[in-house]
Amino acid sequence: MRVTIIGGGILGTAHALESVARGHHVVQLEREREARGATVRNFGLIWVSGRSTAELEAALRSRQLWEKLGADVPGIGFRPVGSVTLLRTPGEVAVAQEVVARGDAEYRGFRLLEPDAVRAVNPVLRGTYLAGLHCTLDAAVESRQALPALREFMAAGGRYRFVAGAEARSVDGRTVVDDRGRRYDGDLVLVCAGAAHSGLVRELAGDLPVRRVRLQMMQTAPLDEPLTTAIADGDSFRYYPGFAGAALESLRRNESQHVVAEQHRMQLLCVQRLHGGLTIGDTHEYDEPFDFDVREEPYAYLVDVVEEFLGRALPPVVQRWAGVYSQCVDPHQLVCRTSPDDDVWVITGPGGRGMTLGPAIAEQTADFIGL
Ligand SMILES: Cc1cc2nc3c(=O)[nH]c(=O)nc-3n(C[C@H](O)[C@H](O)[C@H](O)COP(=O)(O)OP(=O)(O)OC[C@H]3O[C@@H](n4cnc5c(N)ncnc54)[C@H](O)[C@@H]3O)c2cc1C
Fold first, then answer.
1. What is the spatial distance between Cα 251 and Cα 183, in angstroms, rounded to a whole number?
2. Which atom of ligand 1 is nearest to the CA of 348?
3. What are the residues whose beta carbons fall under 8 Å from the beta carbon of 341, sequence distance 6 or more?
4. Whole-prediction pTM value?
5. Which residues pair with 87 in a beta bridge?
6. pLDDT tens across 273-320, in order?
7. How many CB atoms lie within 10 A of CB 67?
8. Please, are residues 316 and 220 in contact by the beta-carbon 8 Å criterion?
9. How far is the centre of ligand 1, averaged over its atoms, from the C-alpha of 31 (Å)?
């Protein structure tokens, strides 16, 4: 088949990979010169640890697919670094104890570590914390390198073409028309336009059950030593469904977040880039219209938290940015996948786990529509 894919982010690219792998020809359109949405703004974390039980199988499958991609396409920078969630309060330790005691802990690669054992895994963590929840399965990729590397890999096979600077404006049967009037004839159209819920997506699929979420992020200059795992703080328990349970309920009742973290709905996630800099975030803003400026207070707070864990000063912050993702409002769905007709599918709303789940979502789409 000839598959036309709209959108150059991870969902579009993962669907392109899956289509090419199944023997089809793909043309992928991106309205910008290079993808500019959530994918290139994210941490690049393949985050198995906090997935709900219902999502775990897909997360584990996706982790496998990423590992294979990492072997086929070294340019994506896949590395099985694992993560340590650093715990600062008794309530956070109780949540970790609860999840480590569950039957699925070994599938997530969970181990609860005393501070000395944390430092054996990640010697940079010389600062203050009570314990660390190690997840050996979490991994990282280089989100700003991955998309071009994957495209180059697909192009080498001769059945893939990327068209940059081509905004899809309409779909006429199975033909996509871009903003220069160019027509792309095919047999199947997959629309992966990320958080662009209006315009073409609304015309094709109406108002989808999705919302948008805005996050603030930053990156430091290179750290002069390796951060051997990704790190998170106990606030991340409040955001990831895999930690839900009696201990988390008790934490919510008895321990409040830092006032800045609560106000900006924050957690700490931090991963070292291949060039040594640390990508650090994040905040969550749910109510539109979103701020178009970035707020300083959350950045200062995150620097303090990371410095507390590392027991040392961070290199200077050199980049700050915000990103928006699309999130399906039904927590039981991995993604919002809808078809205006059998030949046109709109796929969006993977939320804050789209990088993790992208390859598995594409595989599921392909199975579902019999690609
Ligand atoms: C700050 C931040 C951090 C995150 N961290 C992580 C993480 O560490 N791990 C994780 O699993 N998930 C993370 N996520 C979530 C993840 O990044 C997203 O779920 C995922 O990238 C969504 O991919 P996408 O392809 O649907 O959208 P996008 O990456 O936004 O791509 C959509 C693309 O479609 C293009 N487009 C839109 N309309 C058209 C059109 N009409 N014609 C042509 N092109 C069009 C856009 O220009 C854009 O490039 C994070 C998200 C953010 C914002």
1. 56
2. 26
3. none
4. 0.98
5. 131
6. 999 999 999 999 999 999 999 999 999 999 999 999 999 999 999 999
7. 15
8. yes
9. 13
